[in-house]
Specification:
Layout: E1 5-6, H1 16-24, H2 44-61, E2 67-72, H3 75-87, E3 92-97, H4 100-109, E4 114-120, E5 144-147, E6 149-150, E7 155-156, E8 172-175, E9 192-196, E10 207-212, H5 229-234, H6 244-259, H7 267-289, E11 292-293, E12 305-310, H8 316-325, E13 328-329, E14 340-343, H9 350-367
Parallel strand pairs: 1-13, 3-4, 3-5, 5-8, 8-9
Antiparallel strand pairs: 2-10, 6-7, 9-10, 11-12, 12-14
Helix pairs in contact: 1-6, 2-6, 3-4, 7-9
Bound molecules: pyridoxal-5'-phosphate.
Length: about 375
Amino acid sequence: MTRPFNFSAGPAALPEEVLHQAAAEMLDWQGSGMSVMEMSHRGKEFISIAHQAEADLREILAIPANYKVLFMQGGAIAENAILPMNLARGGQTDYVVTGSWSQKSAKEAKKYCGVNVAASNEADRHTTLPAYGTWQLSDDAAYVHVCSNETIHGVEMHELPDLEALGSKAPLVIDCSSHIASRPIDWSRVGVAYGGAQKNIGPSGLTLVIVREDLLGHALSITPSAFDYQIVANNDSMYNTPPTYAWYMAGLVFQWIKRQQEGGLSGIEAIEARAIAKADLLYDYIDTSGFYVNKVNVNCRSRMNIPFFLNNESLNDAFLSGAKEAGLLQLKGHKSVGGMRASIYNAMPLAGVQALVGYMKHFAARHG
Ligand SMILES: *Cc1c(COP(=O)(O)O)cnc(C)c1O
């Protein structure tokens, strides 16, 4: 059976190989007689799954030893509160607004700390990236928060800001939910990276928080214990029962990423090269089509989430129903933006983007 290509923004498509492996192991994980869902998180079987997943993620992203990897719950939206509770100490923070997700983060943080919006692209309808040199950073911020890939507006930071060079001593916090594991991370610029798993890593229910050790231990006293980074770290992410099955699935995805190595490229390098090729293919076609348009500035277009519009929006429904018939699923844009959105995460093969472009050409020829 060939499956349709799934362009969902999240929960999103997973590598087919991973789904097959999970299916094969569903009733009996490696001779244990148990499904991973049925295992104690404290048993030796699950502990081995958990350790392997963390080791593989550390290898893929070259996470330095002085960073903790926390496997939490609540998603990135819960992190909007959990982060300031852990890092802000009730003081001042900087937020850069580049789309819906960072806007939501800044709004939630205001319940727990002072929030300075250091830069915003709202006046450009979230289609640009404010030049790093223009950010109005505070002198005393506990951290600077950015969303390094705006899933809804399709704006990506292709290089993370170097806060020290911008005159800030604060650690950078990135919400990287929708492009984590699509490229290497420059840890010299990052204090905390967090993201929900359901875009590029696994099923929903798992939230990764990768935090530099010196940032632990400053949580407000009202912080729920299960969300206190220090307590979670001290308990190897097992203070409460972690999302065990999602953790296992993420581990299978990490192994799949490692297997993508080819030629002189590591798994993550091969994944990044493929992401660039897929995104270029789609943007190049959109830009030259005369039928479709992407409104994001070329210097900050997301490789993962590509919103686009038909010049004749009365054809939207016909476009979507034809796409579904052609085996191209979940292309409808986010309701706040409209139009279409193609999310082409790691699990989307080049063939899927080729099929989409083929369909778009065909549709344009018929209706142009
Ligand atoms: C999807 C997403 C979120 C929201 O994640 P939840 O799991 O619903 O909390 C937040 N930020 C970004 C960048 C996202 O892509």
